[in-house]
Specification:
With 227 residues, the protein is of the alpha/beta class. It has seven helices and nine strands, in the order βαβααββαββααβββα. The chain has one domain: Rossmann fold, CATH 3.40.50.880.
């Protein structure tokens, strides 16, 4: 199994003067699901190098077994500090594509042409394409081979409007993930705020929030083990 994980390079939280980036649990939990399944993992980001970590995700109350494992894993930290520049990669050689969330992807990956091209190519090849939380926004410009939105008619989830309101960033983000997925013609659904909720529709796998990241990664592995 060769799995590509794509992280954000964006660190500014709109005009707030605060920092954002990727959410630690949403990277660490899938990373170890894939690693423990024996996968070869490639980490990429639009700019390459060290992707910005949302400092809020480093707070004590958001730590999990996976994040604590990461903090003790020098090899994983080195890999994260040296992500490959996304534009140098193609779908060739990868069996699955996974996007951890955090608010950062709303600004860069959701608009990144290399990312869109990669999603479209992986989807067309029938390979798993997965995104968690805010990263579900990366599908907003992706098109299927019939030139319709890739998500049109597909069942998906992502960070909900109620969760965005709860973190008081609904007026800061460039778009609301739930609203954008609906605009794409997707069949959006959600579970209770902050609890694990994953939707699988064909080779598209989406998770609602940070708590959904491990289950989404497990769903990816299960698909790969079937092939």
């Amino acid at each position: 199994m060769n799995i590509l994980m794509v992280l954000t390079s964006h660190e500014q939280l709109g005009d707030t003067g605060q920092k954002t980036g990727f959410w630690l649990e949403e990277f660490a939990a899938p990373y170890y699901v894939f690693k423990d399944a024996g996968a070869n993992i490639t980490l990429a980001s639009p700019q390459g190098g060290q992707p910005p970590l949302d400092p809020k995700s480093d707070a004590a109350e958001f730590q999990t077994d996976a994040t604590r494992r990461f903090r003790q894993d020098a090899a994983a930290q080195t890999a994260l500090a040296n992500t490959v520049e996304l534009g140098t990669l193609s779908a060739d050689g990868f069996d699955a594509l996974f996007y951890p969330g955090g608010h950062g992807p709303l600004w860069d990956l959701a608009e990144n042409a290399d990312s869109v091209e990669l999603i479209e190519a992986m989807f067309a090849l029938g390979k798993p394409v997965a995104a968690v939380c805010h990263a579900s926004g990366v599908f907003r410009h992706a098109m299927a081979q019939d030139s319709l939105p890739l998500l049109k008619g597909m069942a998906v989830t992502g960070f909900s409007n109620t969760e965005e309101a709860a973190v008081q960033l609904a007026d800061v983000v460039p778009f609301l993930v739930e609203d954008e997925l609906r605009k794409c013609g997707a069949k959006y659904s959600k579970g209770p705020d902050w609890l694990p909720y994953v939707v699988v529709d064909g080779n598209v796998i989406t998770g609602q929030n940070p708590a959904s990241s491990e289950a989404a990664a497990i769903a990816v592995v299960k698909q790969l083990q079937k092939t």
